[in-house]
Write a structure and sequence with these properties.
Shape: elongated
Number of helices: 5
Radius of gyration: 17 Å
Order of helices and strands: HHHHH
Strand content: under 5%
Number of strands: 0
Largest sheet: none
Helix content: over 70%
Length: about 170
């Protein structure tokens, strides 16, 4: 069996997040359509645009390491997105829908934050400084999106879900 190294692990994890980002990109329009508040719809649309840029940056990282950009099935994101689909179906038309969609979106963000944080560290250790910079740019976007979602939840969605006037 061939030796497994940090370089292999970096490449495998890069393929994982590439797959995840492409799946997320496909799911964001449906989440936007399902959202009740205009602010949440806009947040999902903004993140869709950011995700397109994040995929482009990942393609640049693949180029930097001299590997073909390709995905590897990510069971974690499949499960997280399936939970989001359940929220859409089970809470459609209720005051709790937006709170559930925000929670689902934050589960996605937290997964991405862990992946990008790890990939950035490994890129630095492997001497891929340009890749680390690109990965950090995406990490900062994902963190900002998470904070924005928290603000939306705190400003309106959670109180509405509790049955309080928003």
């Amino acid at each position: 069996m061939a030796e497994k190294t940090l370089e292999n692990l970096f490449y495998d994890t890069l393929k994982d997040i590439y797959y995840a980002e492409r799946k997320i990109l496909k799911s964001l329009p449906k989440m936007a359509r399902g959202a009740q508040s205009a602010e949440l719809k806009a947040a999902f649309e903004t993140h869709r645009e950011e995700t397109e840029g994040q995929i482009e940056r990942l393609q640049q990282v693949f180029d930097i390491i001299g590997k073909r950009a390709m995905g590897k099935t990510c069971d974690a994101i499949e499960g997280i997105l399936a939970e989001g689909e359940e929220i859409l179906e089970e809470y459609e038309g209720t005051d709790a829908l937006d709170a559930g969609l925000i929670a689902s979106a934050q589960a996605v963000e937290h997964y991405e934050i862990t992946r990008y944080g790890t990939l950035k560290r490994w890129a630095t250790l492997l001497g891929y400084e340009d890749a680390a910079r690109l990965l950090d740019e995406t990490l900062q976007e994902e963190s900002k999106t998470d904070e924005s979602l928290t603000a939306l939840a705190d400003a309106r969605a959670n109180d509405k879900a509790r049955g309080e006037a928003a």
